[in-house]
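Thread title: Can someone regenerate the structure for this chain?

I was given the following input by a collaborator and told the matching structure tokens would be attached. They weren't. Posting the sequence so someone can regenerate them.
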Amino acid sequence: MTDPTRTTSEPYDIAVIGGGINGVGIAADAAGRGLSVVLCERDDLASHTSSASSKLIHGGLRYLEHYEFRLVRESLAEREVLLAKAPHIIRPLRFILPHRPHLRPAWMIRLGLFLYDHLGKRKRLSPSRSLRFGEDSPLKPNIRRGFEYSDCQVDDARLVLLNAMAAREKGAHIHTRTQCTSARRIESIWHIELQRADGSCFSLQAKALVNATGPWVAQFLEENLQQSSPYGLRLVQGSHIIVPRMHDGEQAYILQNEDQRIVFALPYLDRYTLIGTTDRDYEGDPAKVAITEEETRYLLDVCNAHFRRQLAQSDILHSFAGVRALRDDEAQHPAVVTRDYSLSLKTEQGAPLLSIFGGKLTTYRRLAEAALAELKPYFPDMGAPWTAHECLPGGEDMTTPQELLAEVLAKVRGIDEALARRWVNLYGSRVWTMLGEARSREELGECIGQDLYTREVDYLCREEWATEMDDILWRRTKLGLSFTDKERERLEQYLRAF
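Best answer:
Regenerated them for you:
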């Protein structure tokens, strides 16, 4: 059986394997340049590394210590671009860096922040400054001095979703829960075999193949393509914990530790604090990664060394872990392995294979442009780069989130500000697509729980590839932290009948 979404027997220009941020970014960019694109993802979009991040769009202040100036400069420039592209899911955030003199001298931090302010274009974000902490500080009394600078917070899973939607709207075909079982070159064309979760199979052809499988990039090369990996791959586990909100205010904290690493304590979903991340080498199946007791103790200890409020294991509401697939640069410690990306292009029989190693959320768009530059010799008629100046779905026709919030509250009767704000932060201007003709709470259908109505669930299944409960609760809406067992059961029932 051939690709059921294909209306012609002609091969696709590009087939992308992997539905994380790099895969969907490349698919969207390529489709917008006029290429025919198909993407397949074995699980749900953003179901692994791309939804297990610290949820930041940032330049990487600590990368300056490792002299990664190009990466920091590119990341800082992208911070501005992405903030303009998706103002509903990306917001500015001020970071407080408590000064601990025995770890890093003040002059070093000032120099680093000066570079951070000036290496990249900074139009929307405020510059860094020095701070003195008073009696009302949530930090321990002995921490009296610090610094403040700007970065951005992002809904990581929705960043992936919006790029997949952009790719689809540019003509790409997106297949979730569809595994690539094999791919082989025959007369300058890739012949690709795919299998859906229900066991049914189909095939397609493509002129170029992009391996964007993240932690599985080397495994895919070796097992599916029978090729050796051009780079060594280092799998690094990063874990996070979520606790009740630790302090008032919207600021985040970046905490220095004795091992020279840093840990973030980030405001999360109004009611929580997100703490992470760790860095440890990982072996095993990346799909089965989970936080360890050692990592949990580490994160708690770092926070307890800084904050007046002391955390215990019992305060942890949720934890998650992901595996970053980094190009092995033989660094001694996982924390200093480069977060930069590398692209490997192989051409045999005229059919290119591009494999993606490394990368980070902040630079996904530039990585996609670099990938298309590698493939341009095989598609000389492809269009010019375009993604820097076009909004992601929901960011178009939008002034500010605050103005859209006021509009939703004025036009939808019976809803409160918390629900309207959640909608605006998730869907931006696409909130009207989600609502359809509904203009009152009574028209939203059944409330499954936590102000999640069936109209929204229908939209997520119809437009955002959601098929299972975790797709909706953890990657589309982030309501998993507040849903009760009874509400989960009702959502499961509704999805089975959808």
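The chain has three domains: 12-48+158-230+339-388, 85-153+233-336, 401-497.
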